[in-house]
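User: My collaborator sent over this chain with a note saying "see what the structure looks like." That's all I know about it. Can you take a look?
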Amino acid sequence: MSVIEVSGLTKDYGHGRGVFDVSINVEQGECYGFLGPNGAGKTTTIRHLMGFSRPDSGSCRILGLDCRDKAPQLKSGVGYLPGELAFPEDLTGRGFLRYMKNLRRIDSMEYCEKLLDRFELDPTMEIYDMSLGMRRKLAVVTAFMHDPDILILDEPTSGLDPIMQDVFINYILDEKARGKTILLSSHMFHEVDACCDRISIIKEGHIVATFRTEEIQRNDVYIYQVKLSDEGSYKKMLSGGFPVTNSDERHKEVRLSVETGRLAEFIELMSSLGIRDFREIPYTLEDYFMHFYRGEDENS
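Assistant: Without extra context I'll predict from the sequence alone. Here is the result:
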């Protein structure tokens, strides 16, 4: 069953900004990754899911209900963590959580207290005095304090230190194990790779790929790091017809991807060059992502 459905969503702000014919669906109990850099269209899509904007065309639905028309009805079952934070700074963290408790008509703060412990947040501080990381943790607790069944997360670990990022990832994995349905929008490969069952890559407002996470491990592409012994060999490697993902002219190093069917061609090229060092690098989500953001097509 699709819990979250985005169908042909288009919102054109002009000058190539917006989203164009975006379609994704998130199944019950699934964690779905929405991967792309800032400005790619992730937040625009999520704002439509939260009912903040009306699309030019297409639709957004949660539990079969239109996100714009039924926004008040839907929000009680959705935990939304925005990318940009805004709090009333004249309250303490505890005061703000009490305000949200009353607004959401939550009977007990027991789950909220568990979240405060898990994310190591002292709610007695004035929000005005909180660091960016503390405000992000307050936003996390606020988003989840009513224990919603659906989580919509926009750049959720932005502002958290690496240790707390791991705490957050483990929390999301626990929530997924409880059967929660999660849409996680991010530009951070490690959190998408760690949490998500399926992933869509968005570029300039268009979905350019959708795949299951385990497909990356079965990919038919090898990544090699090659150190060349001379300038001529370095230039020949760069122009050898294989997609280059990184190069370092000073150290004469090239990182490139080679399809299984072109391994013999690659070995032939290598045999004609001066090689100082050569090693295989495991293929990652970042490598796949960079096929699209370095202008290479899906099969390159």
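A starting point for your reply to your collaborator: The chain has two domains: 2-216, 220-282.
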